Every structure is written in structure tokens, then in C-alpha cells.
């Protein structure tokens, strides 16, 4: 495979309703798309970098710069036998995994199309459909939170995740457990707590949660190991895991019992598969977290989630949950059983809507 050209686009997609976490509220997503011409095949990837450096140090601006000035020069015109080689070719650039994932995943889309295979099959996926959960942001009222959960359960989602932060944690969990005693419920703190908050977090043990996701520092595996020893509820690590080395450290220190794999955070499909395989060998279940992706990023998540050890419902939900209109056709839909069918068409299995993408584009640059 030879990379001939890439087109960088920044599109703006407005959420149907604001999404609040412990570090802020989002109502408009600036999304960086990469369209790659690889031997005449049009392939697509998406950077999940946010508007601000709150979840990660990466932003749309840094991802654009890194792709333009560093990743494109490393890959342009180079003969590459397989998409699995791209991750190691990008190693001279330290970090910036969300920028790397945007171009790395496009190579996987291209190879799958060249081989006339669904991306899930090329990755080694073994499922025809994947189980889906939903992530619900912090709500201004308890009644509003309950209504959001009711709506998600009625739509068939198999698991409910709510965002928490100090002052908004035990009370909403208690209310939901009383209202929905049998629902699979988990919480996500996005690094909002400190180790000194262990007694408060331990109070959540009473509510039979599937997991507490990333309660402590975004780069602090050691403190999570100390906290996990004090809790009955499994800790799931998200922000701490940037590659297979971090996953190995978390497993060997027993800092968590579950790992959330996000393509952008770990740098693409090759790194994600390495983490998946390590976790599988150590009986650590994984699942796919969401970053308010457009349909292109969502399609890559679906393919990744077809791997065998993605045994817990992920945050891969329907397009219409977040967008009035997505940028792919058909849009991603969730069955009444709370699953998404894995596409059987070559590549990501969905067709980017170029007219829709162009109408949303705020800046565009072609590198060839």
C-alpha cells in the first residue's frame, strides 16, 4: 500500500443536547476527519481529540498540526505491506495518539477495502453483533436523570453509565438503584477524585455497580492500585491506558479489574489489538468507550468491538442518540435487544456522505 494523498477536514457537529462530565460540558463537537488516498482507495479515519485539553492534552489544533507537519511526512509515498505496520512507523513521534489513530485507522479501512473484507474480519473479529450500553452525562435534576435512564432502557440499551463528580455521586447512584434495582449500572468519574476520597468511593460498593471508571488521576496507575485494594467494586481504567505498556503495568499492579479501550486514546487498531490480546491472556475483560464520535469514528469502534474479549457492553450507541443527522449512510442503529449489527460490506461498512461532510466543513487542506 502506498499513501498518495490525505485530505484533512474539520467539521462541526452540534449535539442534540449538552453532554456534561466532571471536566466540562460539550454541546458542539469539532471533529477532525482524515480522508486518505491509498493506491486509489478512498479510506477514512477520525481523530477523537476534543476542543479543549481536559480529557487529554490533545486538541483538534494539536492533532491537525501533528498530522500535517509530522505524520504525513513519515508516511507519504512509502510502500507499506500492511496497515499493522503503520503504528510502528509513527513511533518517532512521541504521544499524540489521537492524531496517529486518525491516519492509522484509515490504513486499516483501505486494506479491508483492497481485500474486499469487512474491517471487523480483517481485525480478527468474531461477532456478528455487539452489545451496547449508553453513557449519560451529569443532569441538572434527579428527575431528569431518571427520565434519561428510562429513555435509554426503552431503546434497548443493555447497560447504563452515568458521569459522576464530587457532590454528584452517591445520591444519583442511590436514586437509580432504588428505581432500577436490576439494571447493569456503572459510573465514570473522569479522574475527578483523589485517593483521600476512598471512603466516599467505598460507599458506592453498596449499590452493586459493574465498575467505577477512572476515579483518580489520569496518569496515576499506582494510586488506583491502592484504591482497588479498598473497594469491592471493580475499577476500570480509561485515561491511564495509552498503550500496551500501561495496560501491563495496570494488570501487574492490580490497579484495575477491567480496561476501557478507546481507539483514539491508544493510537489506533494495532495498539488496541495488542491491549485486547494482553487483557484476554490475563482474564481482564475490555470494552469500547466513546468520545462523541461521528459515524466514521463510530464505525471503527464497531469493528474493534467485534473482537472476542470485548465482553462488556460498550459506549457505541446509535447515531441518532447524539446527532440529528450523521455523516454516514446508513446511520448506526441499535436493535431492540440493545445490539449493533457488525457491517458485512468491505472496509468500515458505511459510506461517508460527502455532501453532508462538505456542508459541515469549516477548514480543509489537501496534502499530496
CATH architecture grouping of the largest domain: Alpha-Beta Barrel
CATH topology of the largest domain: TIM Barrel
Q: Could you give the distance between the termini?
A: 15 Å
For CATH, the homologous superfamily of the largest domain is named as: Enolase-like C-terminal domain
Number of continuous helical runs = 13
Morphology call: globular
Give the helix proportion (percent range): 25-40%
- CATH class (first level) name of the largest domain: Alpha Beta
> How do the strands of the widest beta sheet line up side by side?
5-6-7-8-9-10-11
Beta fraction: 15-25%
Q: Count the beta strands.
A: 15
Structural class comes to alpha/beta
> What is the domain tally?
2
SSE order in H/E notation? Answer: EEEHHHHEEHEHEHEHEHEHHEHEEEHE
Unreliable stretches covering 5 or more consecutive residues: none
- Please state the average pLDDT score: 96
Integer-rounded radius of gyration: 20 Å
User: Main β-sheet: number of strands, strand sense, barrel status?
Assistant: 7 strands, parallel
Q: What do these coordinates show?
A:
The chain is an alpha/beta fold and 368 residues long. It has two domains: 3-116 and 353-367, Enolase-like, N-terminal domain (Enolase-like, domain 1, 2-Layer Sandwich); 121-341, TIM Barrel (Alpha-Beta Barrel), CATH 3.20.20.120. Helices cover 33% and strands 23% of the residues. The chain is built from 13 helices and 15 strands. It has helices at residues 60-75, 86-89, 97-114, 119-123, 142-154, 170-179, 198-202, 221-228, 244-252, 263-266, 269-281, 295-305, 354-360; strands at 3-21, 24-38, 41-47, 129-131, 133-136, 159-163, 185-188, 212-213, 235-237, 258-261, 286-288, 328-329, 339-341, 351-352, 361-367. The strands form four sheets. Strands 5-6-7-8-9-10-11 form a seven-stranded parallel sheet. Strands 3-2-1-15 form a four-stranded antiparallel sheet, sandwiched between helices. The protein has a two-stranded antiparallel ribbon with strand order 4-13. Strand 7 (185-188), helix 7 and strand 8 (212-213) form a beta-alpha-beta unit. Helix 9 (244-252) runs parallel beside helix 11. The protein starts with a strand and ends with a strand.
